[in-house]
Structures are given as structure tokens and as C-alpha cells.
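Supplementary Methods S3. Complex input for the S-adenosylmethionine-bound model.
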Amino acid sequence: MLFRLSFPQRILCLRICKSVDYQSIKLEKTRPRIRRGKERKMPFEKLIQKINKKLTHTRKKAAREYLLESQNEIDKKINYNELINNQIESFKESGGIFNGFAVAESAIRALFYNLLLDEKSKYNIIELGGGQSTLFLNQLSNQLDISLYSYEHDQEWFEKLKEMVGENDALNLNLSPLANVSDHEFTEILNSDNGFDIWRNKSMPLAENMDKDTRAKNCFYNVSEPQLPSIDIADVFILDGPHGNGRALAYSIFKKFIGKGTYILIDDYHHYPFLPQLQELYNVEVIVEKRYQHSNKGWVLAKVV
Ligand SMILES: C[S@@+](CC[C@H](N)C(=O)[O-])C[C@H]1O[C@@H](n2cnc3c(N)ncnc32)[C@H](O)[C@@H]1O
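Predicted complex, serialized as C-alpha cells:
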């Protein structure tokens, strides 16, 4: 239906849809009306109003879906852990946000419910894509012995995040700009035991401003050797970045940190074949797979067995 709009209108629609990450939104109602074989063009401002109204409506439905999910999980004690529940509540009370652009509250509940069953004295976590999850882990580190290695590509956001986190030895925040590889190199890295070296040798820094493109191809963090975690196997891997299909490169580039017992939480796992790619490389048990009805969001929690 978008082909009926003028070129600038199409660009604007796509921008709006992309920026709110609701690629699934339906815009049928913006179709120009046809009268006696003639197309009557909808005024541009009216069209934008319609799109905005539709977006607000969809956002509300999505927010309600998240809210009901959280209430249901608390009521029925699904993936319920007292410590984590209290931490989630106090995080939200102090302005922290889950869901939408950030990692889902239910994903955090499922991850920590399962992780804490392992009853380890310390938990090593690697996170790709900094944001609310980083801030939550910052807060949680006061209650739980965790060590977080987080990677973020956006300098401005990274500085803000660092400022919000403040001094905390449990958190190791790394600024790693994005680079990319060709399709051939992408496959080569994914299938290699030497992914980190191939990536370091063959990847090229992204062209300026391409790091804002939510569908940038074959991108990953240009992690330097000193930025690698100083741990053996990670207990948790949170894959919430970068944008596009490149997130799967983590399976190979961070291979030495993924092993038996590692929990892998993949946000928006269905946007690209992230789960089959993981299953191809590791023997994993899928613990929870979640897709939302009112947004193009979803997540999966898997464990390497
Ligand atoms: C899908 S977000 C998720 C980040 C994080 N795991 C979370 O739970 O919020 C991925 C990227 O969006 C960008 N981002 C997230 N929150 C942001 C904010 N408030 N302002 C600017 N950029 C943001 C960052 O570059 C981040 O790596």
C-alpha cells in the first residue's frame, strides 16, 4: 500500500515505523480513496496525523500487553524470585524502564529465575547493547555478586550511560564502534573457531552515520583485544545489539566465553535467524521463547547444554 504514497510520504512513513520499531504496524487506513477511477490524494498533514494516531494506538496496546504479562507473572509466581522481583520494582520506581526499546521485564525475570537456580557465588555477564539492562544490572550488583562486561557502539549514549552508572567496579563498560564484513566473511566468521581474529583482520569501520541504521548489515562491535572479558566461560550472554543481522557474529567472536551452562538471552530473536544460527553452533536448550502480539518484539532464553 505504501507504493500509492508519494516518495517523501513513503520515506516519512518508513522513518516513523522504524523509529518506533513497529515494523508490523498496519497502515491500510492511510490508503488514498479512489473515486470514479480517480485517486484522491490525502493531504500530507492529515496522513501524518493518521499515522501518528495509529502509532499511539499500537503503542498503548503493546504497553498494555507488557503490563498484563508482568501482572500475570507476579500473580501466578511465574519465574518468580523474591530478590529479583524486589529489584525490578525498585528499579521501576526510580525511573528505570523495561519493555519496548529496552529488554522485556519478563525476560529479566526468566533469566534471573533460572540463573539463580544454579546457586553460584558469582555471576559473569556479557552484554551487547547498553541501556536499561545495564542500569538494572548496576543496581542489582549491590545485592548480587556480578561482574558485567558491556559493549556499546554509540559514543554519546555510552558517555551518558557511564555517567548514570557512576563508579562501580562490578561493571566494565566498553565503547566499541561498529564495523562490518561482507556476506562471505560473515559466513566465514560464523563457521570458524577463530572468529575473533578473522573479524579483527577483515572487518571495516562503518561509514559515517550508518551506525544509526537499524537494519545495517553484517555489523558487530569492533571489540579490541584488551576489551575482551577477563573471565573463562560467561554465565550469561545478553544479546541486545547491535541492530541488524550482525548480532549472530557474537556466537563466534565471543566463542571462548560461551560454553556449557551459559544462558543466552536474545532480544528480538525472530527479526533474523538468530536462534537457528545459535542452534547450528551450540547444543542449546530453549528455556523460554516469547513473541508479543501487539508489537514486533520477542525474546528467547536458551542455555548451552
Ligand atoms: C535495543 S537497545 C537496548 C539496549 C539495552 N540492552 C536495554 O535494555 O535498554 C539497543 C541500542 O539502542 C541504543 N539506545 C538504547 N537506549 C537508548 C537511549 N535511551 N538513548 C539513546 N540510545 C539508546 C543503544 O545504542 C543500544 O545499544
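Residues 17-30 have pLDDT under 50 and may be disordered. The radius of gyration is 21 Å.
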